[in-house]
Amino acid sequence: MQFLGATGFVTGSRTLLETENTRVYVDAGLYQGPRYIEEKNYQPLETEPATIDAVLLTHAHIDHSGLLPLLVKRGFKGQIYCTPATAELLRIMLPDAARIQEEEYKFLSKKKISEYELDGPLFTEEDALKTLEYIQVVPFKTPVKVGDFTLTYHWVGHILGAASLFLEVQNKKILFSGDIGPVESILHRNREIPPCADYVVMESTYGARKYEQENYQAKIIKAVRHVLAKKSMLIIPSFAVGRTQLLLYVFFKLIQEQRIPEIPIFIDSPMATKATYAYIHFSEELRPGILQEGYLEFLQSKKIRLIEDVSESKRLNYFNGPGILISAGGMCNGGRILHHLFNRLWDRRNMVLFVGYQSEGTIGRQIIEGVGRVKIFGREIPVRSKVETINSFSAHADKNGLLSWARTFVKNPPRALFINHGEDESRRALASALGFLKGTRIELPRYESTYYL
Asked: What is the CATH number of domain 216-389?
């Protein structure tokens, strides 16, 4: 087992598993975040993609799946295994990731193009569409043979289709946690207890953080009252998959309970629009009872204004409010949200509400840390809008949630547990709290750390 990504980062997940006869990647993610992190995407691949027999995906987020089109471009011809909902989301997310790569290539300097030895974008939309041909759908709890490995997916409550990956190979059992959802999700059905394994690879995004006990409904009500009084806009940077649909559910409940009035809600993200339809399609992965409440009908109603066309998005600049504008990307590192911040962040009447993790170095992190100005499209924009945060909406388990997931192994602890997919502070904090796994060796792998199991 060799770790090729997300070692000390909350992005770029990729792990190589190799036997005498079979080589597979578990996840194949792009690095996302500030430029110094994204530059890792241009590093040479450690091995020829044609030698990889299969990729076993835990879920569709680009930091777990976004490298797939590059692998295909470079000669990968194996199968890509994933759950049904993950396959649906990949059809939305991979072409979008490719369009971003095509756009980014236009802004690379000649020096960088030469340094990275590029003959074009990292991959194109054509590469992404070709990638979709290699997808093999595997339902939850259905064992499938992949060379020397037998894989089984277990629901983990992170986003639609997200799974822990249980592998059996040569009388050994290996469990990849994937990204672990919260103990009790607002939107998704609760995660499943994973099977015990000899070796566990565990994410640690929030390994050093415990969620505050906050009244997120009160914060939303206060934010809506603010923009109603100021006749302004509530701007919410949000991830297109999972977070946007959760936000819509919270707004639905507050309107249904008459705790806030009906107010125009704009979803300015083509990907979020398509992902919302995917949530309707795979509603069995949502919390029991949501169907009876009328949430799906709310998503399909005229109360939600789904913006797809660029010209429609631009016209929003002339809508003074009151209204709610949810737009991607969630960390303000790209996407249409940058245009809205460019046009509205300087206005004291508006409010920006952050509802997700903001990586180090991103514009979102700068804003919540209280900087006076941020650079968007080469211009310094004053941060005058009111800024608020909600921490209750994360699709990741916090430290307590991660520990409760690991406690399921107490009676049958693994030989070794590898902590990955987290910044080093989070990895160390989680490692120091896992003492209840008696006899388990705790490892914090580095890039290209290799283990013989």
From this structure: 3.40.50.10890
2-209+395-443 CATH: 3.60.15.10
15 contacts 4 by C-beta, under 8 angstroms: yes
Which residues lie across from 376 on neighbouring strands?
379
Q: Which two tokens stand for residue 405?
A: 């997931």
Measure Cα distances from 122 to 92, 286, 312, 360, 361 in Å.
19, 35, 30, 24, 22
- The C-alpha R_g of the chain, in whole angstroms, comes to 22
Tens digits of residue pLDDT in 99-112: 989 988 888 888 88
How far apart (Å, rounded) are the C-alpha atoms in residues 366 and 313? 25
Identify whether the C-beta of residue 160 lies closer than 8 Å to the C-beta of residue 242: yes
**Residue 421 contacts by C-beta under 8 Å, 6 or more apart in sequence?**
6, 9, 10, 13, 179, 203, 204, 205
Backbone angles phi, psi at 269, to 5 degrees: -165, 110
- Rounded Cα distance, 158 and 357, in Å: 14
Domain with CATH 3.60.15.10 in the chain: 2-209+395-443
Structure tokens that stand for 219 in this block = 């914060």
The pTM of the full predicted model, rounded to 2 decimals, is 0.90
Phi (first) and psi of residue 117, to 5 degrees? 55, 50
Q: 408: which 2 tokens?
A: 């399921």
Q: What is the pLDDT of residues 392-441, one digit of tens each?
A: 888 899 999 999 999 999 999 999 999 999 999 999 999 999 999 999 99
Q: With beta carbons less than 8 A apart as the criterion, state whether 69 and 123 touch.
A: yes
Helices (H) and strands (E) in the chain, counts: 16, 23
